[in-house]
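Troubleshooting log. The previous structure file for this entry was overwritten by mistake, so regenerating from the original sequence record. Sequence copied from the archived sheet and checked twice against the printout by T.R.
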Amino acid sequence: MSHAIKFLLRTAMFLTLATISCSHRPVDYFNGGVGRQAKGDWDGAISEEREALRLAPKDGAVCVYLGALLGQRGDQNGAIAELREALQLNPSNTLAHYDLGVALEKQGDRQAALQEYRAAYQLDPNTPPYRQAYERLSHLEK
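Regenerated output below.
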């Protein structure tokens, strides 16, 4: 094999490896956030998810996960904003409805929480937490 061909092959291999190791895709940040949260690094997880969302602003799954993280960390306003964004992108996202209900209930807005729980339950009546949350607050409708 000629030196020129060897050089081109090595260069192509280097560029391929550099591209693989340096590419930062939204899914990489999303997965990084999941990993950090599993290790208890909540701030790192939120940072990773925000970066994933910066790279893929129309990714409803990232909005839902970031919203859930923010809610679990006590930032209900941030959670509500992210979950409402997720529902703008996909109004049938049952998890976004449920998590939005949780955040609204934590803020004391039980009527709005009931609406979100109802939406999640109506879209997916076979998921026990959706049914349980809806039934727990359904007395507010009477």
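The chain has a mean pLDDT of 85. Archived copy saved in two places this time.
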